[in-house]
Amino acid sequence: MVKIYPRWWWLALVAGLVLLMATGQSALARTRAVQALLPAWEAVRYASLPPACPPAWQDTFSAVAFFERALAEHPQDSLLMLHVGRALWLTGACEQAQQWWERAAEAGQPEAWFELLTVGAQEAWPEDVAPALEQYAVWKGDAAGKAELPEAALIWYRRGFDAFPSRLSAQRVVGMLKGDQAAQLDIWDALTRRTADSNPDHWWGLAKSAELRQQWGVAAAAYERGAALTDKPYDFWMAAGAAWQRIKAWDQAEATYRAAADAVPTSTSPWLTLGHLFRAQKRWDDARAAYLQAQAIKPQEFYAPLYLGIMAYEMQDDPTARVYLLQALDLKPEQPSAAYYLAQVSYREGKVDEAEQWLTQAVSWNAAQKPAWWALQLGDWRLQLGRCASAREAYDTALAWGLEQKTYESRLAGWQEKCAGP
């Protein structure tokens, strides 16, 4: 403890007050400088896509002057470096801004890396910050997508992928490249090339490339390799099963779907998919057991009773089909597939009027998907019931939804014969 002699106490007090005032003024000036800077910088940073170099914003000039003076006194303060870079960027001195951000990053200021990423000014990223930069870029891309700005979203996703190539950012980029198979291949090949074979994402990229080349066996084997390297193998097992299923390698597909079920016991998707797999092989008892297992896991979901009802219809067990399809509708009102198959069951039982009512509901509930063949069948049934006006309406709807003109003209000829007379 420092001893202050009584007669010097007032000198110590004066010195303390001077220091306090100087420190307070400096802190106040710093606060004001930041307040002058941040509104403009946040507007740029959180824009869907910042400009390459924005026009000068006059209110930042005083902020630049303060931060430069403060840096002269505290040359190692990385936060000051960060702020002076932001201020310079907003005055249009973009190259100088990037230099200050690079210095701030080197001095241990992590947010400086985000600024460099935001303005697209960096190509090589340190391994310890790259994953966070990728997640930030994906977040920015998702925000741009929600704002219906697809070009900005794609740029952000690519920045994330360039910073840290992983399955997360690669899938986002590929999702924006629909219809461009060559560009999608480039991304998946780059993911494979830029990740080690000890990384499960390496095998995901290899599998996706193989899928695009329709090399289903190669894809399935790659997914399985990836599954063995991760503590979250569910997606790998499900994807492997789908690839095996494409080449009708039933046993391998079944094994991988069961592995997915073991990986996430609360998921119904593996069991529902197994049900579909068994149905394709007409293994009815196994399919029923798989669907019932899904229903036991999540009895509030409508999928299992829907598929059990469709399967019963395929087996011509109409009473059982009706029970399950009605159960699906109870769980999911206005479910169009349930109503469609109830219509088919009713028609096969000779209840044409009831069938027409169910099919009308199915077409209405599924109108967004424009099911032309459903509307065509509805027209046929209405014509059978002698409901000429509504039959013509259904035929016209089918045509508007993509029915071939030749098929429409054939149905229209039958309609005219029955409804328009000679």
Based on DSSP secondary structure assignment, what is the total number of beta strands? 0
Unreliable residue stretches: 1-25
Cα separation of the termini = 118 Å
Radius of gyration, CA atoms, in whole angstroms: 33 Å
Helix-strand sequence = HHHHHHHHHHHHHHHHHHHHHH
Helix content: over 70%
Strand content: under 5%
Calculate the mean pLDDT score and round it: 87
Number of helices: 22
Gross geometry:
elongated
Q: What kind of sheet is the major sheet?
A: none
Structural class: mainly alpha
Task: Describe the fold and architecture.
With 422 residues, the protein is mainly α. It is built from 22 helices and no strands. The longest helix has 37 residues, at 9-45. The radius of gyration is 33 Å and the shape is elongated. The protein starts with 8 loop residues before the first helix and ends with a helix. Mean pLDDT is 87; it is low at 1-25.
Quick recap:
73% of the residues lie in helices and 0% in strands. The protein has 422 residues and is mainly α. Mean pLDDT is 87; it is low at 1-25.
Main attributes?
422 residues, mainly alpha, 22 helices, disordered N terminus
SSE diagram, text form:
Blueprint (H helix, E strand, L loop, with lengths): L8 H37 L15 H13 L4 H13 L3 H13 L4 H8 L11 H17 L3 H14 L3 H9 L5 H13 L6 H13 L3 H12 L6 H13 L3 H14 L5 H12 L3 H14 L5 H12 L3 H14 L4 H13 L3 H14 L6 H13 L3 H13 L4 H16 L2
Helix pairs in contact: 1-2, 1-3, 2-3, 3-4, 4-5, 6-7, 7-8, 8-9, 9-10, 10-11, 11-12, 12-13, 13-14, 14-15, 14-16, 15-16, 16-17, 16-18, 17-18, 18-19, 19-20, 20-21, 21-22
